[in-house]
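Morning!

As promised:
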Amino acid sequence: MVEVLRLLQLDNWLQDMDGVAAAGAGALGVDGLAVSLVTEADSTELLWCSDATTRRFEDLQLTLGEGPGPDAVRTGALVWVPDLAQVRHARWPALAMEAPDLDARAVFCFPMGIGAIRVGVLTAVRRTPGPLTGEQADDALILASALTARCLGSGEPRPDAPEPAGSQHSLQHAVVHQATGMLSVQLSLPLSQALLRLRAHAYSSGRSITDISQEVVDRRLRLDPGGHGNGMPPTVADKD
Amino acid sequence: MNREQRVTEIFVEVADSLIDDFDLIDFLQQLSVRCMELINVAAVGILLADQNDILQTMAASDEHTRLLELFATQHDQGPCVECYKSGAPRTNINLTDPQVTSRWPQFAPRAAETGFVAANALPLRLRGRVIGTLALFQTDPDPLSDQDITLAQALADIATIALLQQRTAANSEVERAQLQHALTSRIVLEQVKGILAERWHVSVDEAFTAFRSYARAHQLQLARLARDIADNAFDTTLIPPPGRPVPKV
């Protein structure tokens, strides 16, 4: 898993997703991994996928609109299916019809996000039934959080880049989440983009995201709605 | 009422809560308050380790942001980190002792600013693993008795049980899923404090108080209501906003 996380830290991580996926699947003792990202319309799209079995499962969930992946995204909770054949029919009726024809037997979905910010879902698929070990589940949660930070922090190629928006250090501070909520209302932005604005401001002012957040919460700082490009991804659908 | 009666009363109250579909965050917050009263300390916090072994605050006897931030300062130092890493209780730590303060250069000054002179941290234990800590801060230097510590540890164990009792949408059988869900819920709550504070033009602490009163009055779970608000699935004009506006700086 250390190797997987190292690969994720590289600037060209998106080009080497196959390497990340292979190393990640190995570390988690599964046959395949997939990452789907939440789109604006609250559906998901596949960012990458390591193998045919996993791709088929992801495609099917997307087509049917149900399954462990959509549940993980919706609830923000991990969804754990050690044996697809044992799932109650009523839980995912359409998926249950297809399950016997699938190579996937065990599926584990780890939500990627920060609080109410939904980024996507990391899906681990195995062709044999059985649970993940506690250690594997911990590793998968770590991978999902690293991917979350990466996905929220991408488009920041500078060598002295600050920590990604979702990095573990800033997550610990209640003020960062509070400031995110306040900014989302001030600027009529989704929470995810409010967090990126905070981070961009911290970066451009050379200060920590915690300090900036504290000023926002204390109402000593307001960010202007126009924004100013600062390694900040273009904002979309933010006009009210 | 003497302490023994009070302890009995609290344990009955706790047991009653745990058999229902209870509100985890509110439960842990009230447990922190009870612990503060019973042990007679100034502040209590319940911290839970995330997947990266970083302690995150799940609840505190006082939800004021200043206290939450003090807990957050303990990302790599402080009594809770030492307790979590060693798995052993760290009790009656004198926060004014220079040997202690020099070991925790970020944590100690902030604790002193808040008026805390002594700290205690007890592990949240789960089958040989430590999943977080219960922190007790004092504004007086009197050491806690062995009895106090035994009682605090029992309350810490109750916090662990509560964390594992909560029902998540999908799978109650996986401990990790429950702990992860608890941490996520807490972050949603902080985001919603910010959303409401800005909508109402009040401080985040005032926003939280109004939010919690509404949730309690309508028997809604804090975490669920918070998520609905964040998802724009709940009309927040239904919640009576706090009356007092915050002076603009």
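Strands of chain A lie at 32-38, 44-49, 79-81, 106-114, 117-126.

Hope this helps with the figure draft.
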